[in-house]
Amino acid sequence: MKMYLISDNIDTKTGMRLAGVEGVIVHDIEEVSDALDIALKDREIGIILITEKIGKLIPDKIDDIKLNYHTPLIVEIPDRHGTGRTPDSITKYVREAIGLKI
């Protein structure tokens, strides 16, 4: 099972490449969508790493894959500029998902 990176940043791709992860650099919605379609067709790819900035370009497609596909697992990662999430994003997610206030 392989991991594959979809990123908008050459530094992120270089770092992941040093760890043995292949990937692609994309910049617009069409490129992101095409790269994701290509990765989905490759049965050896079990995990797709996608930078948060790129993930924001096609959130509906990523949500569809997360909900309806068994593989691959989509993991949104921060790029070298850090995360775009608010400090309470995980607790907010839990609260919305199960209605439990932590």
TrEMBL record:
Keywords: Ion transport, Transport. Belongs to the V-ATPase F subunit family. It comes from the Bacteria. This is V-type ATP synthase subunit F. GO terms for molecular function: proton-transporting ATPase activity, rotational mechanism.
